[in-house]
């Protein structure tokens, strides 16, 4: 696997040494604030990712050839998880997205429970949507 | 909706704190194992842990040699059939049905409602009405909704009052001349209130409509005399009643059962088969196609035996005390809003300014097993204007310590989130 993007490495350094759920939650809430905002028009039905209990929107755009994603949610901790997902996939092309092991990434962060099959927060649905968008744009 | 509200309650404050112990907790290896793992299980409306006698019955059935029921002349087949049919007799007595022929085993309560919606389909004409209530679980809503689509029927939805009960005044006008069937829940899995069944069933009877009662939650919190209740059909699932999953019970009064057409075809339900035609058994056998969940049915029998051996009054008193403590704890916290006014078994709540998903995340992190979401009642939540809620649901093995851990986790989560 190639090197992690700088922001992802930063996340790994920060999360991997946290001793408990409370510290992880506090840091997730901080990461939630890092998401680039989506405006009201971008929070549209067309940009909604279904398969999440909470509302999640995902927008993709080309910036200098590379695909750039932005995401938003009405749930705060999920915003933190989305920020960690976006940090990990920054700069990846379609093939890189297809190969990404999301469970492994969150396991490295100590957040593996957030990816279990019974979770309905929809991170897997977000990654699926990213793969679709990468294939079509 | 007009009526049903979400409101903060101010009552129950200052309840004296007595340790609430469950004398039955030690009978449930599952709850003890979860506790040892640091998990506090308060999602009992979804499914319940099993008492030791149920585990023993499942183990013994397989360990002593399994066989299929109803067909074989050999000893193992005879033994399996006797044990299987013994459960039918226990269910008959449990519900005070007239005879074991009124008890049909299905693969769950959901399958029981689907069986009814297909088996009764031939009785409906376009324009006929099916009446349900606004609090129905998807299992007792979607089979009727889809039947209405298939046959061009109108689905009428009874509104709720502010407490969370089906509005009887509205029901008296909505259950009308075109009503052919009334399908209502006995105890809501969201609002935790006994519904006014005697009044509703009388309204249906007066119109000559069939009645279906969803007892999935109700069956767990009290024994019900179906002869006295007087409904045509009643369904519940084993797994919520401390038995194995994969088994549902459909009670049908004999004259009502006789109106059902066969709906699934295969082994066991057929009396005589030719290539071009066949004759089928009447209910209950005729409605039990294929190999049934034999071990599960035997396990349900063990669960009923276990429950039969408990002091019913003591169980009810314990559950009521737990529920009061749950309500008191919720009422004592700022910004916590109860859905309706739950009376038994569970409470659903939302917290002002806090997303349910965030609460769910942090309760889960702290080993609190509660349900967050729309609890298979999406239309109800839509009417409440809520995306979902947190549901704490109780069983007879829960104790005051479970609630103490839940509230400590809730406080820690809210401290982080606000």
How many DSSP E strands of chain A?
A: 2
**What overall form of chain B do the CA principal axes indicate?**
globular
Supply the number of helical segments of chain A.
Answer: 6
Strand order of the largest sheet of chain B: 3-9-8-7-6-4-5
Range of helix content of chain B = 25-40%
Structural class of chain A: alpha+beta
Outline the structure in words.
The complex is a heterodimer of chains A (137) and B (418). Chain A has 137 residues and is an alpha+beta fold. Chain A is 47% helix and 12% strand. A two-stranded antiparallel sheet of chain A has the order 1-2. In chain A, a hairpin with a 2-residue loop joins strand 1 and strand 2. In chain A, helix 1 packs across helix 3. The longest helix of chain A has 14 residues. The model of chain A has no long low-confidence stretch (mean pLDDT 89). Chain B is of the alpha/beta class. Chain B has two domains: 152 residues, Alpha-Beta Complex (Aspartate Aminotransferase, domain 1); 244 residues, 3-Layer(aba) Sandwich (Aspartate Aminotransferase, domain 2). Chain B has a seven-stranded mixed sheet with strand order 3-9-8-7-6-4-5, with helices on both faces. In chain B, helix 5 links the parallel strand 4 and strand 5. In chain B, helix 2 packs antiparallel against helix 10 and helix 3 crosses helix 10. Chain B is globular. About 2% of the residues of chain B have low confidence. Chains A and B meet through helix 2 and helix 3 of A and helix 12 and helix 14 of B. Chain B: Its EC number is 2.8.1.7. Chain B: GO terms for molecular function: cysteine desulfurase activity; pyridoxal phosphate binding. Chain B: It is an enzyme of class 2 (transferase). Chain B: Belongs to the class-V pyridoxal-phosphate-dependent aminotransferase family. Csd subfamily. Chain B: Its cofactor is pyridoxal 5'-phosphate.
